[in-house]
Amino acid sequence: MELSSLLGWIATILFTICYIPQIIKTMKTKTVEGLSFLLLFIQFIANIIALWYASLIQQPPLVIKYIFGLFFLAICLVLYLKVRGSQMKNKKLKI
Q1: What is the pTM of this model?
Q2: pLDDT for 14-46, tens place per residue?
């Protein structure tokens, strides 16, 4: 395997797993304090555009990276909305 391909696959793996710690933290703490929904949403849109680009230039490591990135970002967004919704509900119940 060429060095450029090896670097591409290593980057793919690292970019793919970078969302996992945030998912675990959000699930454990049940809080999204300090986490920006807008940042996650913009990253999601950017991954869609980048996936389109990677498909056009036929780069398998990038295609895989953006597919997994979209998957993990979707999990982050769903968790964010779920946790934020329960936090808002709890605030209303305390009032």
Answers
A1: 0.76
A2: 888 888 898 899 889 888 888 888 988 998 999
Contact 19, 70 (CB under 8 A): no
CA 84 – CA 95 distance, rounded (Å): 17
Distance between CA atoms of residues 56 and 62, nearest Å: 11
The Cα 25–Cα 69 span in angstroms is 18
Q: How far is CA 65 from the centre of its chain?
A: 11
Cα dist from 30 to 1, 27, 46, 54, 92, whole Å: 43, 5, 27, 35, 17
Count each helix (H run) and each strand (E run) in the chain, helices first.
4, 0
Neighbours of 17 (CB within 10 A): 11
CATH architecture of the domain with residue range 3-94 = Up-down Bundle (1.20)
